Amino acid sequence: MTLAVVTGGESGIGAACAIRLAKGGADVVITYHDDRKAAEGVIGEVEAAGCSGLAVQCDVSDERGVIRLFDEAAQLGTAQWLVNSAGLNMSGKSVAELDTKQFDQVIATDLRGPFLTSRELVRRLGGRPGRIVNISSIHEFAPRAGGADYDAAKGGLSQLTRTLALELAPQGISVNSVAPGMILAPMNEKAMNDPDELRRREKCIPWGRAGKPEEVAELVAYLLSPEADYITGASIVIDGGLSLTIAQGA
After folding, report:
1. How far is CA 4 from the centre of its chain?
2. Per residue in 181-230, pLDDT tens?
């Protein structure tokens, strides 16, 4: 039985990935930051799919916390798959107004976190093959005013993905990232709760609608599957064509 670790698995894309992987036959360990009830709900769905599940409270930016995460995951075996989904959104503040603590916090969660978890997975595998999928964003290459913290983290995550892919290919560990556009997940809570805001933002998407966490999870599941064996170092966009509009008006 394959064991997957999914960070940020209590909600949004992370939760959808955990449930989808369990439906595909994988045991799943998820991390959560503070919403244990939501995490237990996801584990309930994992177990309903006939697989083993475990929820571990973890701040992925904390080195000791990440080591403890993999220690606890070892109850179910050695993790072979890692999905780095835990993340914080942008501050919305210009660089001139952005305080250092806020910038550091986003970098620590969105970039340092995947570094720590990926490093620990590789160490635990001890030379055996595996797979890593990082949940990035189209903002790894498409910046937004007010997003210096988030955009920098995701840009760094893109290069971390490529570097890991290069280093780990001889070991048989593929490393890819998924770059979603607008997804109806907690990071887009305002649009989820305000129909007018949702319609306004969907007008910018060529496909005409926002994406669903389950659609991202299907792509992640593919990248973890044997059929994706020849893919590594890739960042695959899933955004309904939103990033194609970057040059409009140029």
Report:
1. 13
2. 999 988 787 887 888 888 999 999 999 999 999 999 999 999 999 999 99
Instruction: Spell out the domains of the chain, with CATH numbers in brackets.
Output: 3-241 (3.40.50.720)
Examine the pLDDT at 249 and tell me if it is beyond 80: no
Residue 51 has pLDDT above 80, yes or no: yes
Task: Name the residue among 50, 48, 36, 43 with its Cα closest to residue 18.
Answer: 43
Predicted pLDDT of residue 194: 82
Q: What is the mean pLDDT of residues 73-87?
A: 97
Count of residues for the chain?
250
For residue 161 the two structure tokens come to 């993905």
Give pLDDT, residue 123. Answer: 98
Residues whose CB is less than 8 angstroms from the CB of residue 177 and which lie 6 or more positions away in sequence, other chains included: 133, 134, 135, 136, 140, 157, 158, 161, 234, 235, 236
Cα distances from 207 to residues 14, 141, 182, in angstroms, run 23, 20, 11
Query: What are the φ and ψ backbone dihedral angles of 211, each rounded to 5 degrees?
Result: -90, 170
Q: Which residues are catalytic?
A: 150
Residue bearing tokens 């595909």: 24
